[in-house]
Design a protein that fits this description.
alpha/beta, 2 domains, globular
Length: 528
């Protein structure tokens, strides 16, 4: 294999890895401008790191290693503790030599099971250590290199994936920190996107005492219906087998109609793009690279329209916007947001399948899935009513956040308006239900920020670079919520656009003069 082929496969693997990890990448990017200086660290250990291997054990917990890691690349010296919570919940806790007295845990991506030494997770861990947090992570109870999807057939591992692994890791990590420093963390923070977002919401709903502040980005909060949507998309994508070239003509027509102002679709709910009207249709019986066949047009309508059950709309479809090509992973060329999610991959663990189909697992749509159940034979009329138990186990849809609010917790939620993986309408729906359950003062503890043009967790045509943790720390520790959040788009290392993110239902409104690439020319205002 020549070097060019190796490079292409390397880029492909990184693309898959980034999608699977689904971790927001800019959590501490504006720490220098935070109101709270959380980088000051004065707490030092009261014991030896190695002693934690034998002195920090607890029932059902095995500490497999405790070793001092030397300072390198700006990451301070720290004690790394690895362990297992029975039966197979792997965890890692990293304790810096000088501690800011705060605890930080980050979530999983995709189907979880990641090992702590995988590069995306190392990057997040090291970034938190540079800011002197105690850092924790878990594999959620299984190993994705051995059982990426098969773990869902094991009832215990499914429970661990659903919620148990995160909660027990929080308790164990805080206990280890208390032993090492002889004091408890002053504040605890969660940070997660996609699956990590679902995990964060479940923490707020089921274990409100675990974290003082929670960041969730693009949460797959209704996991079961998202899986059913995956089944629906499987049928649609079998009907219209899209390529990157074909989806480009859709994107060009879409943005001509709805994104002409500044190249970003600020709110796709207001976009009336119709592929049957706005894209050239192929002559009957003939395909073509510059037109849509009837099957392709019908597939797009099904993708945008969402799941239909018993003749009625059942679950959100996908919004218009991620069809466009944009940067999503650092050091990689722009590519459609549909790549991997809607358009089949030729690499990774699911060759020949888009992720929307690969992630649609029968065990996550039914309590007792029939043998051979797949998207090709799923009954959309009867199926949605056959998963009460699995919904109660894995979904993060409980709108009752009163206990989290009453203990002083703060929740920041973000979702990209151009997410190709999870419908952003799901986040808005949850916010509205939580507001109804919690009362009109929901902004005192929970704020949702929609991000125009952002793909899944990051990337896209919008301003996807913004600091989540600094804004959360400021809110938790000063009591003042963020009225807006500074965001920017970075291309080839250069800032090309800035824009304020606004708490929903507000949105950034252009003042009518000046560059649309300058945040100074926008203000947060009511939806128009």
């Amino acid at each position: 294999m020549n070097r060019f082929a190796v490079a292409v496969l390397g880029v492909a693997f990184l693309s898959w890895s980034a999608a699977a990890e689904a971790q927001f990448s800019y959590s501490f990017s504006d720490a220098a401008h935070a109101k709270v200086d959380y980088t000051t660290a004065s707490v030092v250990p009261k014991g030896a790191c190695a002693a934690l291997q034998t002195g920090a054990g607890a029932p059902d917990v095995t500490i497999t290693s405790a070793a001092t890691i030397a300072a390198a690349n700006g990451v301070p010296e720290h004690c790394r503790v690895n362990g297992i919570i029975a039966p197979e919940i792997g965890f890692e806790v990293d304790l810096p030599a000088t501690w800011n007295a705060r605890f930080y845990m980050f979530g999983n991506g995709g189907l979880a099971g990641e090992r702590p030494d995988e590069p995306p997770r190392v990057a997040v861990r090291d970034d938190a250590l540079r800011h002197h947090f105690v850092v924790a992570q878990t594999n959620a109870g299984h190993d994705d290199q051995r059982e990426l999807t098969s773990f869902v057939t094991d009832p215990q591992k499914l429970v661990d994936y659903a919620y148990r692994a995160v909660h027990l890791t929080v308790l164990e990590a805080k206990r280890i920190a208390a032993i090492y420093y002889d004091r408890q963390p002053v504040h605890a923070y969660w940070d997660g996107c996609s699956t990590g977002g679902r995990q964060g919401l479940i923490e707020a709903q089921r274990f409100p005492g675990d974290f003082d502040g929670i960041v969730v980005v693009a949460p797959v909060l209704n996991l079961v219906d998202t899986q059913i949507l995956g089944m629906w998309l499987g049928r649609a994508l079998d009907e219209g087998k899209f390529t990157l070239a074909k989806i480009k003509i859709v994107a060009d027509a879409l943005y001509k109609r709805c994104g002409a102002h500044d190249g970003v679709i600020d709110d796709p709910r207001k976009c009336d793009f119709d592929p049957a009207r706005d894209v050239r249709q192929c002559i009957a019986g003939n395909g073509g690279a510059d037109c849509l066949t009837p099957n392709e047009t019908d597939a797009l309508h099904k993708i945008y329209g969402g799941v239909v059950s018993n003749g009625k709309p059942y679950f959100f479809g996908y919004v218009k916007g991620p069809e466009a090509a944009a940067g999503g992973v650092p050091n990689q060329p722009p590519v459609s947001g549909w790549n991997m999610w809607m358009i089949p991959m030729n690499y990774g663990p699911f060759p020949g399948k888009p992720l929307q189909i690969a992630f649609a697992l029968p065990q996550l749509v039914a309590d007792h899935p029939a043998p051979g159940l797949s998207y090709r034979n799923y009954d959309f009329n009867r199926g949605p009513s056959q998963g009460a138990k699995i919904r109660a186990l894995v979904n993060a849809t409980d709108p009752d956040l009163v206990a989290f609010r009453n203990r002083g917790g703060k929740l920041l939620q973000f979702h990209g308006w151009a997410d190709p993986a999870l419908s952003p309408l799901m986040s808005i729906d949850y916010y509205q239900k939580a507001k109804a359950a919690s009362g009109a003062d929901i902004g005192d503890f929970y704020r949702l920020f929609m991000v125009p043009g952002m793909f899944h967790c990051r990337g896209g045509l919008g301003t996807d670079h913004f600091d989540t943790i600094s804004n959360l720390v400021d809110w938790v520790e000063t009591g003042k919520p963020p009225e807006s959040i500074a965001a920017r788009r970075v291309v080839a290392g250069k800032v090309t656009r800035t824009r304020p993110l606004c708490p929903y239902p507000q949105a950034a409104r252009y003042k009518g003069a000046g560059s649309t690439d300058d945040a100074a020319n926008f203000t947060c205002g009511a939806e128009m």
